[in-house]
């Protein structure tokens, strides 16, 4: 009996020595990582791409810079608050006006006044284009001289628009005749466009400004070829 127990104990010891330890998942050595050259590393750690890290850092720096510039612009425009210039038609006189046989002739002498409402910005007007309309039909166009305007300044500008036997359709000629017969006046529209530079210190900003002057009435009865603007100065709309 003792000999059989001794044999069983030895068999159990041999069996336990042949099995791996329960705390390690592999029966043998752990798998080894190989690099591109075929060498095996017992301890493997991924390598970060320095180019990708540089790109990420540059992107973050650019975003921070844009955010700072945006905040500066918001604060700047909040303090300066640029405003579009105002424009007024001071006077508009008409001479040698005649509409007959679908042909139009006339001379319009215009004085328009520009006002800079900005207390911190000066303005520069480059090549102001002035166009005369009747019921959305263009009659004449001229260019006004460029000019500077200081802070809170007002600048009167004179211009002349002329038409000499320009063909107009029957609809336009009939409409002008009916206005003269009914009210003794004719309403014209004016449009002025210019590239305006806003200046504040070293800051420069250019934008196109359009001024519309609607329904500027000129008293010119049917039996007369001349007339003047009805009423006082008329303010225009700036866009």
Describe this structure in words.
With about 240 residues, the chain is α+β, with helices and mostly antiparallel strands. Helix content is about 25%, strand content about 45%. The chain contains three helices and 13 strands; from the N terminus they run H-E-E-H-E-E-E-E-E-E-H-E-E-E-E-E. Strands 3, 4, 5, 6, 7, 8, 9, 10, 11, 12 and 13 form an eleven-stranded antiparallel β-sheet that branches. Strand 10 and strand 11 form a beta hairpin. It is elongated. The model has no long low-confidence stretch (mean pLDDT about 85). It is a single-pass membrane protein. It holds the Pfam family LEA_2. It comes from Brassica campestris (Field mustard). This is Late embryogenesis abundant protein LEA-2 subgroup domain-containing protein. One of its GO terms (cellular component) is membrane.
| Largest pleated sheet | 11 strands, antiparallel
Rg value: 43 Å
Number of separate helices: 3
Unreliable spans are: none
- Count of individual beta strands: 13
Helix proportion range:
25-40%
The H-and-E topology, N to C, reads as: HEEHEEEEEEHEEEEE
Average pLDDT number: 85
Secondary structure category: alpha+beta
Report the span from N to C terminus.
Answer: 116 Å
* Shape type: elongated
| Strand composition percent | over 45%
């Amino acid at each position: 009996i003792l000999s059989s127990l001794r044999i069983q104990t030895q068999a159990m010891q041999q069996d336990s020595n042949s099995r791996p330890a329960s705390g390690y998942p592999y029966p043998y050595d752990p798998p080894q990582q190989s690099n591109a050259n075929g060498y095996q590393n017992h301890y493997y750690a991924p390598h970060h791409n320095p180019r990708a890290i540089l790109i990420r850092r540059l992107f973050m720096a650019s975003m921070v810079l844009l955010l700072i510039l945006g905040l500066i612009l918001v604060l700047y425009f909040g303090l300066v608050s640029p405003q579009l210039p105002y424009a007024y038609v001071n006077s508009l006189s008409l001479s040698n006006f005649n509409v007959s046989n679908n042909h139009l002739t006339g001379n319009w002498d215009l004085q328009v006044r520009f006002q800079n409402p900005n207390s911190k910005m000066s303005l520069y007007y480059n090549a102001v284009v002035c166009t005369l309309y009747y019921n959305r039909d263009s009659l004449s166009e001229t260019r006004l001289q460029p000019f500077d305007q200081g802070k809170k300044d007002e600048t009167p500008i004179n211009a002349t628009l002329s038409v000499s036997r320009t063909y107009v359709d029957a609809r336009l000629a009939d409409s002008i005749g009916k206005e003269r017969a009914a009210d003794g006046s004719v309403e014209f529209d004016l449009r002025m466009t210019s590239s305006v530079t806003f200046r504040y210190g070293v800051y420069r900003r250019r934008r196109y400004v359009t001024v519309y002057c609607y329904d500027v009435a000129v008293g010119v009865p049917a039996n007369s070829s001349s007339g003047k603007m009805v009423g006082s100065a008329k303010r225009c709309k700036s866009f």
